[in-house]
Amino acid sequence: MANNKFMTTVSPHLHEKGQTIDRAMKDVLLALAPAGVWAIIVFGFQAILVMAVSIITAMLSEVVVRKILGRKSSLSDLSAVLTGLFLAFLLPVTTPLWVVAIGAFLAVGVAKELFGGLGKNIFNPALFGRVALMISPLWLYIAKFVKPFWYTANGVNWFTPITTSINNGVAGRVVFKTLAGTTKVNVVTSATPLSLLKSGRMLANTVSGATPVGATWITSSGRPSFWSMALGLKAGSMGEVSVLLLLLGGLYLIYRRTIDWRIPVGVLCGALFIFLITWNHPVYQMLSGGIWLGAFFMATDWVTSPMTKRGKWIYAVGIGVFIGLIRLVSPLPEGVAIAILIWNALTLVLDRYVAEPKFGEIKKPWFNRVPVLPKPKPAAQKA
Fold first, then answer.
1. What secondary structure does DSSP assign to 359-378, as a single string?
2. Which letter does DSSP use for residue 77 in this model?
3. pTM over 0.85, yes/no
4. What is the Cα–Cα distance from 345 to 320, expressed in whole angstroms?
5. Per residue in 305-326, pLDDT tens?
6. Residues 299 and 160 in one domain
7. Domain match, 125 and 35 both
8. Could you tell me if residue 221 is inside a domain?
């Protein structure tokens, strides 16, 4: 008799021929490439520095922490590279490089490796790193944004590296400096569309306040134009600015079956539902912030999303509804990261109670009454 051996591995477990972790990571990196190139064009050489520091720190964190914990290196699966890139996409281009490095370590060294490594983490690592920075004393360093093509101002150029710096002797405390410590007075903080909405500055017919609107094309009322919002010509984090390029990458992942289409559809529909029933500037809300990056690239993480189709619908719509509610009633202008992390934790519940009954059981869990869309085809009966 042949000596057959069973191979055991950690999740995520794939059940389709050709679907491997390595292939999936490469697919996501390829899908993110257009948005990454656009970030470099819009925000200059500093975008390259932020991405490089985030990715390198993420890789080093994985190597060092796994060495300390006595585990083999897993850099070949590219998960650390992807986590580092995701974190960079979630930060403003003016984030100091040392803050980027701290966030990357928290994402990989803490949220991923301390939970056991790929397949065992409860939370999306990049979002964990972003939120950890947001609730820490470092929040001020990741809360300042610049206009697209800021490097066209006098005294700076595409290669000028700038970073947020705290200066207690300056009104507002925040200034932008080069890596050499030179203050650049021509580079000013700009308001993102979501900050305009949350602060109440986006009035019915005009935009009030002194902070410049961070958009290339502005309407006669002072608002960011539709095309500025859609094409990525607006202030914001590096990877969230271009809705069209994120949509293009997301559709590629759906075509490759790397992600389940139910999750981005559920997230976007859940959020749109809240924006419509509250009439909270639905067009601006849907084209602002990280909702498209979150829907296609963050919420669809295999490890931290449910396994069943019903579970995916509940999870996705729940994230969308939470995004809408957080933006509406909380003091925060954005809610994508927090909403996804909350539902990452609830994934454990969904996987337990949204499942087919075990052998010998009669009743299904309550959540299994939620319909599956599209409905499964009836099994063919044998003659």
1. TT--SPPGGGGSPPSSPPPP
2. G
3. no
4. 15
5. 998 888 899 999 999 999 999 9
6. no
7. yes
8. yes
